[in-house]
Amino acid sequence: MMKAQTAVEIHEVLANRRSPRSLDSTAVLSNQDLIAILEAARWAPSANNGQPWRFFVGIRNDEVFGQILDSLASFNQGWAHRSSALILIAGVHSREDGTPNKGFLYDCGLAVAQMVVETHHRGLVAHQMTGFDVAKAAENLGIDPSLTPVAVIAIGKQAPADLLQGAMLERETAPRERKALHDIVLKGLPN
After folding, report:
1. In a domain, 156, yes or no
2. Nearest CA to 21 among 121, 174, 164?
């Protein structure tokens, strides 16, 4: 695993995190790891402590896994079927008084970020994706209209990259890249 080239030292889990597509199709996610991953997401910060995230958890070969997998774009289906778990996050898009919850996507993102950090901390990998059919996911999973499907996270044990081919293999083995800090911090970057 290639460590990110950062401007200064950052936490090892963050520096080593990747979103691989090469996953071990025989790896089993323990209940303890799954509960810890979900628990990390549960404790994410949220505006007014609204906690708008809701999770649909599928374990490889169960019905929920198949329903989530079926909603993925064909490119993502081509590798995600090897993951140990697929988790769809949906968000409550309205507050209890019926007004729009403008921050629900942000809050859901925070929950997924904590989920991903915990996943990698446990020696597993996570790959987040928005390449899925929202309507199909809602239908397959019977998602209530009060929820908006946001993303799907594949979790598993990383496998050798050479299980992949073509462009997918090239992306898997490419160095991690990010825009430079001066490109994303528009004001206030220390020298």
Report:
1. yes
2. 164
